[in-house]
Model the fold of this input.
Amino acid sequence: MSVYNSLDSITEELHNCMKCGNCMEVCPIYKETRQEVGVARGKISLVQYLLSGELEMTEKLADRFSLCTTCMACNTNCPCGVRFDKIILAARAEAVRKKGLHPVKKIAFTALKMQRMFDFGMKTGSIFQGMALKHVPHKSDRIARMRFDIGIGTDKVFPMLASRTLRSEFPEVVKVKNPKMRVAFFTGCMINYFYTDIGKAVVEVLKENDIEVVIPKGQGCCGIPASVNGDVHSAAALAKRNLRAFEKLGADALVVACSSGGTAWKHVFGELLDNEPEFKALADKWAGKSYDISEFLIKKVPFKKEGLGRVERKVTYHDPCHLNRGQGVNTEPREILKSIPGVELIEMKEPGRCCGMAGSFSLVHPDLSVQISDRKTADIELTHTDTVATGCPACRLQLKSGVENAGIEEEVVHTIQILAESYKNGKKK
Ligand code: SF4
Ligand code: SF4
Done:
């Protein structure tokens, strides 16, 4: 039974919790709030009361379930193997079934399902973004701050919308001579609309490795923002649209450069479409050939070392939660970085600790998100590096905001950008 369809699907997980409190040691929310409701154990008790009928779902209770970055740190520190990620998703889906979706989220997820209109909105936004965003001069990033407070403060630093989306910059099939493989690229929204530099680096690196790249125009949002907020119907609709778009063009493998997108293709689509056998089979098929880009370049088609040029960077690597704990990808990006001539990798303290971004969490709980981010920024500063590499555009946003506001001169990039830079420098010889 899918966690998205019924609270009963998680009764065993709830039963396995012995209330030891080990999850407190690692929970970023508990570290800041010191409240039982912030940690897995507290929320597990609330769900148990819900199931036993001692509590009713209210808006206040639904709010409590929003207090979680879904970082999965509690999963890994739990001696009983409780999968709290399943519990929180089931609880949020139940909250939406009982209390409905917040109107703002409803509008946002509806817009995400209307791809053409969404594209038009983003295009218009890229033209008029200066009305809401104030450009922050920066040597390597196009970043900005809000001109006025819409409830999230004006300190946060955002990437600016690209004037052209990534998917409009490339044909659906990027050909190479004598391709050794045909690989589909799921761009995700942040890379398509904001961080097109990451997407271009993915295409360049794949081409450099003689791989034909397929970028279906019909793809859209991965649906993770909807699924983690309990909007199961929107998430399922988005999953189906992506499956159809990629199935139509076909490929030997699928790559992503975003931790949410990878989680969606590997784990979430199948769970969401559990009750629809035809789509479930499709989701399982694509899950079996989906890779994070770093995982693909280490495990599936080892990337070419010849042709790599020097990149003089002192780099520290931040592990995105959904790439590290969600997909078990953590050695691969480091292997890539260590292979690049000139790169010195210096580990920060607790590179796997959540950065506090967590999608809409940072908008719903902006102060808490910044508090969590401040700890990460302090750890980055101690490394005395000049670059933070990470494997997720959302983490890049949060980390950049943190270092910028702390006045630390640090570039924040995706690992694949450093590899692309190395190939580029190799050609200058
Ligand atoms: S660590 Fe696991 S068993 Fe212990 S309280 Fe937390 S969720 Fe329950
Ligand atoms: S998933 Fe992360 S934020 Fe949520 S309860 Fe577990 S440790 Fe805390």
